[in-house]
Amino acid sequence: MKRWLLLLLPLGFVGIALFFYQGLSRDPSQRDSALMARDFPAFSATTLRDEERQVNESLLRGEVTLVNVWGEWCPACKQEMPQLLALSDEGIRLVGVNYRDTREKGKEFLGEYGDPFEVNIFDPEGTLGFDLGVYGAPETFLVDAGGVIRYHHKGYISPEDVQNRILPEVEKWR
Fold first, then answer.
1. What is the mean pLDDT of residues 69-78?
2. Cα torsion angle, 20, 22, 24, 30, sign
């Protein structure tokens, strides 16, 4: 009986170690969004450029929209701006979420790097970002004409991502 216990103890330890190793070795950016195929979360916020203008989730109904979560403090957001400008030039509707930023810094960023967004939702406390499950900027959500999230891109959108992921997803839901 003691020999079985001595054998079970190391086997149990190895099992627990493998369980933790597997969980810690996964790339969190590859996780699926819990909001996939669900309505865009309800929100009410002002816009970055006009603190008197209130917008809500109805802004995202009627047309396929890419919702990009960005911040002035985010180096990858600066890198992906040329791709977002190109998508806007192709007639794809973009709405920004200025995440955990100040109005002044957000406006300066857009002045320097360009503004591909039809509207920028101002989210200084990160409340909408939290409701979307954002863990870092940039993140982009494709919302169909009915206001349902259909695709979630985590991280920087590269030129290859535009061709291989973003455009095919937009076309699928148009």
1. 98
2. negative
